[in-house]
Amino acid sequence: MCGICRYLRIAAIILVAVFSSNVAFPAPRPGSDDRVMLPMPNKDGAVPLERTLRLRRSVRAFDKRALTLRELSQLLWAAQGVTDPPGYRTAPSAGALYPLSIYVVVGNVASLSSGIYVYEPSQHRLQRVRGGDARPDLSTAALGQDWIRQAPVSLVIAATYHRTTTKYGDRGRRYVHMEVGHAAQNVYLQATALGLGTTVVGAFRDEQLKSVLSMRKAEEPFCILPVGRPSDGPS
Hints:
The protein has a single domain (35-228), classed as NADH Oxidase (3-Layer(aba) Sandwich), CATH 3.40.109.10. A seven-stranded antiparallel β-sheet has the order 1-4-3-2-5-7-6. The longest helix has 23 residues, at 171-193. It is α+β, with helices and mostly antiparallel strands. A hairpin with an 8-residue loop joins strand 2 (100-106) and strand 3 (115-120). The protein has helices at residues 3-19, 49-55, 69-80, 135-141, 146-150, 162-168, 171-193, 206-213, and strands at residues 35-37, 100-106, 115-120, 125-131, 153-160, 197-198, 219-228.
């Protein structure tokens, strides 16, 4: 076999291995050394699933108390945490291709600096995108919804369509939308089990939100989930 043919054959094998893998491999981001390891999540909680289903409500009023890093860890694990050595996660994904990204806008979390982070499921850690309290900018991008500014943290679910459409064609876009719903409901139920509140926000200016979060061009934002401790205000 000639040298060029051997090289092409090896390259083809590598490409097949990457695209058939159960684990997505996002490109490294700037500042890749600025990472925060999260506490290990609790995988055997004491609150029955049926109770969380019964109590789950949309909450839009939060008090001023901070979230703990352990609570944030649990929420992120519920959204996209790895539950099996091959890389399978808490939310089902068509073809186990995992097109979702979870951005975290931190304003008031104990032992964690304010800033924008991306969740890395494989290592259960955060990678900082930039520092500073971005909640006012997030609220502005979300058409001025002030309760987003008040929440101690917001999770933003984004997705890269081509991770799924490469295998499933245009039908894959529908699968991505389903997956966003799976992950968001996981956050709802986990927040309820922790005594926290959240709701899904779909009203925002896409390009402005992408700019605030420094999203990659291929990523599309789908929803914001502000999370906090429910107050006695209107819900």
